[in-house]
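Support request, priority: normal
Reporter: lab tech (M.K.)
Component: structure prediction queue

Hi team, I submitted a job for FAD-binding domain-containing protein from Ralstonia solanacearum yesterday, and the status page still shows it as pending. I've pasted the exact input below so you can check whether something in the sequence is tripping the parser. The sequence length should be 332 residues. Please let me know if I need to resubmit or if it's stuck on your end.
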Amino acid sequence: MPFLATLPIAFLAAAAAGFVLERTLYRRLYRASPLDQVLFSIALVFMAMAGATSVWGPSQQPVELPDALRGQLRVFDSGLEVGRYRLFLVGVVVVLTALLAWLIERTRFGARVRASVDNQQAAAGLGINVGLVSMRSPTITRLYLQCKPDENLAEWSDARIWDELHTRLENNDGWHLKEGPILQKSVTPMRSFVCETMQHGRLFLAGDAAHIVPPTGAKGMNLAVADVRVLAQALTARYRRNDTAQLDGYAERCLQRIWRAEHFSWWMTSMLHRFDDHTPFMQRLQRAELEYLTTSPAAARTLAKNYVGLLFADAPARALNAVGEVSRSRAA
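Reply from support: The job had stalled in the queue. We restarted it manually and it finished. Here are the results:
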């Protein structure tokens, strides 16, 4: 088989083998300890080496190079000679590195890869403070700019968005916002909603199916995870101990946290957003509240406690009823 034809075949064969190993073996170790994963990888390498030795023997196998890759090349008439095959390998590495960098930095697939690489321990090892980083990943985030509810997205070019973000996020401390590709644009309605009927028979609602919060307080995912945690505990009690008490009290346990988060998100939205129907008096009240929040340690602690997340309470909350809904401003 021609030498150059074997190169893509080798890459494809390695990719196929990796796919099979991930599907059959590695996937079972995703929740194992790092030590178990390392030991398994080392064992797999030794097994692969033993298999290759059994098939091809312990001796090195000769590779027939094409004539174009044989011999030496003189470098700048300096007397230094470099093998053509080595130069070929260097060229292949450079091309593949450039293609990989372009794939990771400039394509939607690369954006998804960067978004999935979100290991807090690895980030901490690099000196990144991950305590309160509200981002999709270390390299991808979602930012909001207030606009009209019927805003035409065609009028919001990437340059205009970056200009608005520079204006809002930069100050006089020398820090500058780093620009990158904008992956998605949309108009998000600033809406609050709670459906307190979170269970009916064997149907249980969780997350956005039961409640909506505006993104100002960053509580949507927190509430969804909290709902699932409560439901998982209740299902575990039902099927391990035949205890239905937690399932029966699922909505009660969730709603106490939901209404606290709803109030926090509503409060943040009311304080930070401008509304067309606000009088100058109401606007001054907003500013006074914001100034108090940024200067009072007590107010800052309250904000931090609600923003970071509330503790889980195992005791059922008191029963609530009715459906609450309020619509406010919108943001993009």
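The radius of gyration is 29 Å. Confidence is low (pLDDT under 50) at residues 128-133, 315-332. Let us know if anything else looks off. Ticket resolved.
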